[in-house]
Amino acid sequence: MNHQHDSQDLHTTDTIDSTETIDQGRRRVLLLGMFGTVGTSAAAFGLLPKNLLADSLPASTATAPLKEPIVFASSGGTLQATLRATTKATSVAGQLISGTMTYNGHYPGPTLQVKPGDQILLKVHNNLDLTAAATPNPHPGATHNHAAAMTVPPANTLNTHFHGMHVSPLPKADDIYLATPFGGSYDYDFQIPANHPGGLYWYHPHVHGVVDNQIYAGLAGLLVVEGGAAQIPALQGARKRLMALKNIAIANGALATGVAPADQLHTLNGQLAPSIGIHPGETQLWQVANIGNEPYYKLSLDGHRFTVVAEDGAMLWESYTTDTLLVPPGKRFEFTVTGVKAGSYAFRTLGYNSGPFGDWRAAQLATMVVAGKLDTPRTVPVQLDEPPAYLTGPIVKRRYLRFSEGFDLSTNTPYFDINGKTFEALRNGTQVKLGTTEEWLIYNDSNRSLNEGGVAEDHPFHIHVNSFIVTEIDGMPVKAYGTQDVVNVLPGQKVLIRMAFPDFIGKSVFHCHILFHEDNGMMANFEIVP
């Protein structure tokens, strides 16, 4: 659908309040400032060659069938489950790995499977014992960027964010401001709305300053709300494949750190290059999530195309077919795949460069094996639903968000900000009126970043509590197929989104989902008020 927003100078409207900084440092802007060029070699960044740092794929796992994570499912309207965040060694890519952080010893964590209207009763124990292990920092060697008014929390501080879920941001629900210390636990107790979109979501920690480390180390799991695209009549009874994409580096049986993106490995449900079986003519629904700390995946399947039916948990109102899908950090897609003639086909990422420190290499993620009895293909209709009314409804507020980064020579630290401010949890967020619709213009100000000693790189925008619709890019109307909660914003790009706030009051955040950026300040508060 093409949609032109009402004409107004967005640069003169109210801005979202942002705030101060915090971090567990890395290479990005700091290293640019130290070496003065983005062409500096990996050796200059203190990154060891791959053959000294990252182990290769064990031959025994190369053709192992895809396994899906264990499932904790609701029953009788309630999901009652326990998650234990632990630092015990776990199995990843066919070998026992130390130095990880996982839920219940699984990589990825257990899948939480619920229905709209369910009550969530989830106890999360913090058993992240770091007394005998080093903090799994994916970016060692970079200077910390601590806010003057804040202290970086201990690396084993914990909470839980239900990414993409339209639920309350208040305590006992999706409250990302709480902090559970090592040895403690927290009881989540909240209800999923009865009209919640069915689809693919995920959960992970969100303690500002340590998120990057914890997710890189393995603290992430999928969350499935039943319904949505899986209930399209043409897909009734079709096989579903649940897939979690995640980056890792392994050295000498342990989680490796300081590995350049191009030299990292990529797991699919904790496996390396598994096989996925499908019959000729069979149509399957693949539900894919990027649960890594910062990798980008440009998905492709040799000899096949994807028919996309859902994005970021919500069924599209119009399906579309494509050869590739860009999946930035935090994003999810659900699409159909129909097997063609018998044979083996590579499911791969084609590689993507998100900036000077984001050269993500091409890699084979799995092998789809077409074999067996001939099946009848399923055809998904183009029209799946109707767009929400707020897409064409009145706008009560327009806001301008400028994402930029730089390097502070006085403190020798990088910084990442929104509207010139780095994150501070205690700062009041800009207030948004309940029951209204707003337009936000998100600007990746790469010129300012370069002028202040930073670099030009992508920023995947993510907001909690509510999803949004992208209506324009660089002033040009774009066709919207559905809602989303993550949108990638290229250097110099301006993306206009429209967002409704129909229910749930409380304070929450929006941020860049490259988690090093988030931990270093590229996050801001907002508050929905009656």
UniProtKB/TrEMBL annotation:
<feature type="domain" description="Plastocyanin-like">
    <location>
        <begin position="157"/>
        <end position="227"/>
    </location>
</feature>
<feature type="transmembrane region" description="Helical">
    <location>
        <begin position="29"/>
        <end position="48"/>
    </location>
</feature>
<dbReference type="InterPro" id="IPR008972">
    <property type="entry name" value="Cupredoxin"/>
</dbReference>
<feature type="domain" description="Plastocyanin-like">
    <location>
        <begin position="88"/>
        <end position="130"/>
    </location>
</feature>
<dbReference type="InterPro" id="IPR011706">
    <property type="entry name" value="Cu-oxidase_C"/>
</dbReference>
<dbReference type="GO" id="GO:0005507">
    <property type="term" value="F:copper ion binding"/>
</dbReference>
<dbReference type="InterPro" id="IPR001117">
    <property type="entry name" value="Cu-oxidase_2nd"/>
</dbReference>
<dbReference type="Pfam" id="PF07732">
    <property type="entry name" value="Cu-oxidase_3"/>
</dbReference>
<keyword id="KW-0560">Oxidoreductase</keyword>
<dbReference type="Pfam" id="PF00394">
    <property type="entry name" value="Cu-oxidase"/>
</dbReference>
<dbReference type="GO" id="GO:0016491">
    <property type="term" value="F:oxidoreductase activity"/>
</dbReference>
<protein>
    <recommendedName>
        <fullName>Copper oxidase</fullName>
    </recommendedName>
</protein>
<dbReference type="InterPro" id="IPR011707">
    <property type="entry name" value="Cu-oxidase-like_N"/>
</dbReference>
<keyword id="KW-0812">Transmembrane</keyword>
<keyword id="KW-0472">Membrane</keyword>
<dbReference type="InterPro" id="IPR045087">
    <property type="entry name" value="Cu-oxidase_fam"/>
</dbReference>
<feature type="domain" description="Plastocyanin-like">
    <location>
        <begin position="412"/>
        <end position="528"/>
    </location>
</feature>
<keyword id="KW-1133">Transmembrane helix</keyword>
<feature type="domain" description="Plastocyanin-like">
    <location>
        <begin position="245"/>
        <end position="350"/>
    </location>
</feature>
<dbReference type="Pfam" id="PF07731">
    <property type="entry name" value="Cu-oxidase_2"/>
</dbReference>
<keyword id="KW-0479">Metal-binding</keyword>
<dbReference type="InterPro" id="IPR002355">
    <property type="entry name" value="Cu_oxidase_Cu_BS"/>
</dbReference>
